[in-house]
Specification:
Distance between the termini: 26 Å
Number of helices: 2
Order of helices and strands: EHEEHE
Number of strands: 4
Strand content: 25-35%
Strand order of the largest sheet: 2-3-1-4
Structural class: alpha+beta
Largest sheet: 4 strands, antiparallel
Length: 88
């Protein structure tokens, strides 16, 4: 089963917030079998359900262990939504 995950990370009280966000994204991109798309608003992860969810949760835990204060906003939807839908 495939899944699509959209993630926004908000490090609280961090002066180097961009560095912290990229530290979260790099391991996601390095995971073989996942497609990771990043833009100025969020990061999207596409792939096999168990691999994608386990990888995202591992990296969220890493952020909480190292930063302490960070907010994640996540959306999970079944299927691979990486391709734009055709207009009706």
């Amino acid at each position: 089963m495939q899944i699509s995950i959209e993630i926004s990370l908000y490090p609280l009280a961090e002066e180097k917030f961009k560095a912290e966000i990229w530290s979260f994204i790099r391991p996601l991109r390095a995971q073989e079998g996942l497609k990771v798309v990043t833009n100025g608003m969020s990061t999207q992860v596409f792939g096999e359900y168990d691999l994608a969810v386990a990888t995202v949760m591992r990296e969220i835990k890493q952020v909480h262990e190292t930063l302490g204060s960070a907010v994640f906003v996540c959306k999970f939807i079944s299927g691979d939504r990486s391709e734009p839908e055709a207009e009706i």
